[in-house]
Each structure stands twice: as structure tokens, then as C-alpha cells.
Amino acid sequence: MLTLWTRVVQAAFIFLTTESIVPPEKPKNLNCIVNEEKNMMCQWDPGRKTYLETNYTLKSEWATEKFADCKAQRDTPNSCTLDYSPVYFVNIEVWVEAENALGNITSDHINFDPIDKVKPNPPHNLSVRSSEELSSILKLAWINPSIKSFLRLKYSIQYRTKDASTWSQIPPEDTSSTRSSFTVQDLKPFTEYVFRIRCMKEDGKGFWSDWSEEASGITYEARPSKEPSFWYKIDPSHTHGYRPVKLIWKTLPPFEANGKILDYEVTLTRWKSHFQNYRVNDTKLTVNLTNDRYIATLTARNLVGRSDASVLTIPACDFRAAHPVMDLKAFPKDNKLWVEWTAPTESVNKYILEWCVLSDKSPCIPDWQQEDGTVHLTYLRGNLMESKCYLITVTPVYADGPGSPESVRAYLKQAAPSKGPTVRTKKVGKNEAVLEWDQLPVDVQNGFIRNYTILYKTAFGNETAVNVDSSHTEYTLSSLTSDTLYMVRMAAYTDEGGMYGPDFTFTTPKFAQGEIEAIVVPVCLAFLLTTLLGVLFCFNKRDLIKKHIWPNVPDPSKSHIAQWSPHTPLRHNFNSKDQMYSDGNFTDVSVVEIEVNDKKPFPEDLKSMDLFKKEKNSTEGHSSGIGGSSCMSSSRPSISSGDENESGQNTLSTVQYSTVVHSGYRHQVPPVQVFSRSESTQPLLDSEERPEDLQLVDNVDSGDGVLPRQQYFKQNCSQHETSQDISHFERPKQVSSVNEEDFVRLKQQQISDHISQSCGSEQMKMFQEISTAAVFGPGTEGEVERFETVEMEAAIDEGMPKSYLPQTVRQGGYVPQ
Amino acid sequence: MSSCPSRDPDSSDPRPQARLVGKGEQEGPPSQLIPPLPQVSRFQAGILSLLLVLHWELGAGSPTPDKVSCVMDHPCSSNLMTQVKNQLEQLNSSANPLFVAYYMAQGEPLPKYVDRLCGEDFMSFPPFHANGAEKDKLMELYRVMAYFYLFLDDVMQCQKTLNPNDQKLHSKLDSTADTVWGLLSNVLCRLCDNYNVRLTDMINGLNTSEEDVFQKKRLGCQLLFKYKQVIAELAQAF
Question: Which chain regions cross the lipid bilayer (chain A) (predicted)?
Fold first, then answer.
């Protein structure tokens, strides 16, 4: 296989080389050029490539003489240069011989007079001179090449203004003969022209010389050929019958100034006899004019003369402009901004075109130009920038003053906006979203915004494009999916392209507006209705519920125990709160109803009592069962420790009790405890229903001398007093004995007696006198603690009972039966 | 005393090694040839006689020595006489600048006393009769220009020695010599082509080999002064 490929390559090489190596082809198109005083170069077309070393020899001879051969260089096989100038006016015959290893061949012979192939040296020392007599001519002079001495020449003269790039040609027939100077006519005054010249044999045989070096000259001045553009601006803030008028004009272009403008002359005419002349070097003049009509004229002056006058009518203050141009439009063309309009029907003296760049950042600084009254199409002759919005105003100027201006916007060249619009959501619904955006600032528009394109998509969905007209600033996207994140971007397009603004995302809500309310409100209503029904039901069945949850506990104070007791204290009508606790000191009244028949202890009740034991030591101290009260005669059953359950049980079996517990008002401890004591074994449940008993108490209360001295009521008067009482009962580890309590009460009574005087009539007291002997009776353990009032007060401060819970006697108390 | 070197035919002078020959040079006897001018153009002491063979053909008025027809390598130009006229004008236009350039290059006293030193009419060119027939005028023109060419060649060689750096003068001398050489070629072609004339006359030149430097300069100045006058007459004649 390799051998086969090798043979193929060898065959191809042989084929190619055989095809390439050829004898030289006959040279064609032989031609020569004689460079004056230098050399003669001949060129030819060598034909196909021979791939062999081929020598090209240029041979030349006269009719009488042969010349040395000229051998072409290897790198330029198509030309050869004789290093001497051939003799003119003697025909020479020239040909080319090509020769290589495979053969030789000769080109066609050409026979020519070298003078007919000559390329003269260019004219030199070209000079330009102006004429003071004629501002439109320049005189050229030059030195001809030496060949001119025996050869007739013709010339080519070109010229241009200094700033132009294209050359104008002097008519050839004017320069068809030998000369060394020429006067160029019809030139513009005071204009710098650049000239160049070349020559060739007059009969056209041969070649043009190279161009001479350029020479320039300035034509002489002439008077300005045109009046300056003239316009005015009136400051709107005129005062005292005068108005500041700013007259402005344009410098004449050089081709109209025809010289250096020395100054401008402004003439203001109010009446035919009122002239005001100003000579100004600047191009503006501010004058204070009255509200009358003025005629302003302007002329420009140079060294030679004055221009025609430019006339402008400044109308009176009450002049009403009218007759604007019609169909005003502006368009770019050939890198110029063209303005076209339809002339009004009235005769127009001239038009004033004003323009400025619209920008949000900079004010509109107008430029202007003037056009003749016959013009209705022109371009703005200013330094216009691309991508800028121009506000163009055209004002026709009539004989009696300016007409109404008309404006149009245009761009010299539009571009894509440099920033895209920033889109945001105005409102987002479950299936639609209202997008809104601001119009792009004119500085970033770079062109007329033709339309907007909104692209939106979900995270994994296809992008959807929507085109929106440029006049809109909001758009509603519909058919959206609820609870979905959407990405939105928006582009603004001009004629030249678009630009996207920043991406924006929003999420459609899961529920439409009001949908949640439609669900929640009925549910709430249903709940309320259910609750209401439940309340109504409970209200209707309150007895049953109360029986199960909060059974009635009879108020022992309203029982008939007092009647049953042999030492019934004066009974109070507890219902008459106005009398007893007008200030509402009774805040908590707990009643525990204990079934007598229940032999078992009530663990829960007891437990609850334990829980409150510590907190309610004072209560414990205050409260005493009826049996406790009965312990006035027998203190043991009422003051018993927790270990003495048995004795307590014994008491329970025999004594019913009631406890009236009250607390102070707002942390005030009532100074006097109310006890209702019954030693009766009758149940107390009927006490509440027997108001006559209360009536009885009232009756008893009214009799001072009849009152037993074993109980007393005292209305709280001062907190100190109360605290003393309470602190006493709360002393820990005190020996709880009725005697002590009674002793304390005695002390308290003494103090209270003293204080109660200050309480006035509002302070009610029920005082039960207890004799000291009774307090320290045989029921005590014989140990009498000395009791000092100071210590008691300190103890009271340490703990203040706030409420009184129903007492179930655990420590030797009385358990209701 | 020093003598100007003669021009070596194998030198690097780029001009054609001109020889006015006809077709018969290759075939005819030596008597038919015009000796190569550069080779014989040198100043010798005294008057050097050069032989210029004029080969007369039929119609020339006198029989040619060997009856050999005159044939050129190429036909002469159809406007050959115009070319001759233009060549004479060209020479005439350059004669005065050449003369000025020459004596200015030689240094004083030649520029100051050019009229007295160069204007003496001792230099004589071969005669020329402007009112003669074309053939005669061409033959006389040939003798005059051949004479001048021989003399000019010696002047060129001397100036390359005496004023080796005056390229402007050298260029003018070379250009004039070339033009004269072309004129001679055209005349020869015209005589041969139209009149079948081969020139074999002997022309005597000046032998200046023993002159001093000033005298050589002066002889050249006198030659160019005379040439200026002659060429103007010749240009007028055609």
C-alpha cells in the first residue's frame, strides 16, 4: 500500500514539474519611458512562469549603431532600465529576448524616437502673485525643465482653495503651448489658493511630468459680497416701558466677507428721524428699546468697502406673530440634518432656523442660521452630534416682523438607547401582573423610541416577548400562573436598535385578592355562631354545669348557726355591703361545701388546702372554724397541729362550722376578722335562704349592751393596723393557740381603740371584749409569751395575706359534715 | 606641460561606443568604413589629420570607390529631416550655455577676457553652404559635426582631468556630444537611405597634445565659441 502511494506521489511530481518547466513565452506589450536627463526604462509582460532560470535582455540599436544590452534583474524580469538618457530625435529600435534552458524567444520590435517617450522633469520654482487691481486673479510663474529649450511643451495647471480637497483644472486649451507664466482668473476674493503644474510634450506624445511642488497665494480683498445674518432676542422681563433687545448676527464666511471684517455698523430707527448708530466689533449688541416698532440694519465693513445692509424689523410690543411655516420636517441625509418646510402664502423675507440639543441635564442653548425667503430646504450648518435630540425651530420673518415659530425634533444619527427602561410591577394578581415603567430620559434615548419589548418567563419556561407601543408606560401581563416566579426584562427600541433594562422578578400570589377573605370570613362566622350556641347552651344548662363544676357552698355567715350558738355574736347582714364593706373589702369569699356523709377525707380538697397552706398562714390564722370559735371555751379542737387529725376527726364528727374569710381591699388587710361561730351540729346549707337570721343580726347589732363580747367586727381603717394583725398571725412556728390570738386581739383592740378615734364615723367597729383571764385561760399551756407591739409590727411587714381561701380544717380544724 | 588622456574605448563611459558604419562594414573592405570616432578622437601635436571616408553612391555625382550599395540595419525614420532640424535646434539651444559653462569653469582670466581670449577667429570648421542642395548640405553638415565631435571629445577628456568635479559642465559636454552623435547618425542614415552615399573623407583635427593647460583651456573655449556660431548657422539652414 505504501509503495503504491509513493508511486502516485512521484507520478504527480513528475507530471507537475513537466507541466511547469517551459520555454519562455514571447514577451508582450513592450513599452519604454524616457525620464529626462536620467534614463530610459522599458517594461514588458514576460508571459507565463517558466520555473527555470530565464534571462530577459533588452536590446536596442539605431539604424547605424547597436547599443549595449540591458539585462533585466531576476526579481524584475519584466523591466530594464538603461542608465543613460537616450539621444533624442534619433529613432531607436528596442526589443526583448527571453532565453532559458529550453529555448529563447524575441518580442516584437518597437521603433521610436525617444523624444516621443519622454517624461519631462516637472516645472520648478512655481510662484503665485496676487493683483491689487483685481481681487479675482492670481499670477503664476515657473521655470520650465531644460528640455523646453528644444521641445515644445504644454501644461496642466490645477488649483484649489486651501481647505478644499479636490482640485480644479485650468482649461487645457489655455495651457497648450510653451510658457513660463499664467494668470488664473475668476477666483474668489481674499481666498487662499494652492496651485500645482506639470508639463509634457506639446503634441501629447510622451508622458506628463510629475507635479511640481505646490505653491499658494491669496487673492486681494473685495467688499463683502453678502449681508450678515441678522436676528434678535427680546428679554421678556422688560421694565418701565423698555425692553432689552439682544441683536445678534453671524460672522460672514470668508467667501462672503471677501476680506478681514473690521467692524459692524448697526443702525436702529424708531421713527424716520430717530437714528441710533452703533459700531461693534463683536457679533451681538444689547440695547434697551421702547415698546415701539424698530427697524434695525446691519452692515459689515472690510478694507475695501461695506456689505449690503441686513434689515430686521423689531415689532412693537403688542405685535401678534402669525403665519407659521407648514409641513415642517427634519431628516438626516448625507451626514447632515436637513430641514424642509412649506412656505406660508405670505411673502417671506427670510427664515430663521434655531436648534438646540434637548437634554435633561443641560439647558437648551440654541444655535441659529438664516436662510433666504426663497429657501424651503436647507441643512443645519453647525457642529451637530450624533445620537442627540435636536429641537429645531423655523421662524418666518416678514416685513412687519417675525411670524409664528414651528418646531420639530430630529436626530442627525440615531443609535440604540444607552440604557433600557426599568420595569416594575404596579399590581400583581393571581393570573396577571400590571407592569409599569418610566419613559427613558432623552439623554439616553439616542433616538426616537419606536416600541418596547417585554420579555418574561418563568424559571423553567420559555421566554415570551410582547411588543408595546412607545406611547405606553404600562402593560398588563395576563394568563400568568399563580404562585410562580416570573422574570421580566424590557427593551426600548429606536430605529437603530434596542437596549435592555435590568431584569426584574416578581411572584404571582397563590390566591387572588379577596379569596382568603372569602374563606376566612365564613369560617369565623361559623366559629362565632358555634361559640354563641355553646354559650347559650351553657347558659341554659348553667345549673347542671354549676353542679358539676362549681357546686354551691353555703355561706356560713348566713346560716342559722348563730342562732344555734348559745353565744351568738351580733349578726351582720352581710348582704348589706353598704353598711359593712362599703369600700368592697370583701374580695374573695370561698365556700367549700363538704358532704357530711362522705366519710372519706377529700384528698383533692385537702391537697389544695396544703398548697395554700403556706401562702395562707395568715388565713389559717384568721380563719377559724366555728369550732375554733367554740374553742374559746375549748381551744384544743380549734388549734391543732397537722398531726392531730384524729382529734380533728373527732371534732368533725360533732361540729359544723362556717368560716367567713375576707381580705383587704387592694392588698389591705382588714384589721378585724369576722367570725361566725356555730357550735351547732345542724347543717348550714339553709343559712343562705334564711334572711331573717340576718335581720336578727342587725337587730342585735343595734343593741350595744346586748352584744356578746366574744366576737367583733372592725372595718379596716389603716393598713398599719391591718398589718399588725396579719403579721401576728403569720409568724412562723408560733405556738398557735387561741389564747395567744385572743391576747393579740386584745392588744389590737387597744391599739384600734386608739386609732379608731381617728377613723371617724365611717369606721365601723364591732368589738368583742374578751377578758384577759379568758384569753389566758386554763386551755393554754401556761406559757405566756411576752408580746411587744413593735415586734408585731415588724412581723406584719414581712407577710401580708391577700386572700382567704375556704378553710378545710386539717390541723385540728373543722371538717364540715 | 601635460597632455589630456585619450578616451579608452573600454572605459566606463556610458555613451554608446559610437561608430558610424553602414551595412557594408561587415562585408565591405576597410576603405568603406568610417573609423570609430572616439578611438581616433584625440589631440595630437599640431594638426591631426583624420580620415573620413565619404562613400558616394549612385546619383551622388561621383562614383563610389567600390560600387558597394549603402544599406542600413533599419529603415530611416520617416521624419528624419525633422529630427535633424530638431537636433540642430537642440544643439543650438545648448551651445551658448555650454560655452558659458565652459569658460566659467576654467577660471580667470578666461571669464574676464572671454571675448578676447576665445573670440578670435582662428578656429575654422569645415565649410558649409546653406543654400546648397539637401544632399550637399547633409554632406557638409556631416563634416562639420564630425569635426566638432572629434574636437569636443578631446575637450571632454581634458576637462575630466582639469575640472573633475564640475559635473554640470561634464553633463553638458556629454549631452552635446551625444546629440552630435545622434545627428551624425541621422545624417548618415539620410545620405545612405536617400542618396546611397557612404562617406570616406579624411578630416583633419587639432593636435593639442603639446599645448600647456591654459592653451588647452583656451582652445576648448575657442572651439565652443566657434561652435556656437556655426551651430546657429546650421540650425538656421535646415
Answer: 519-539
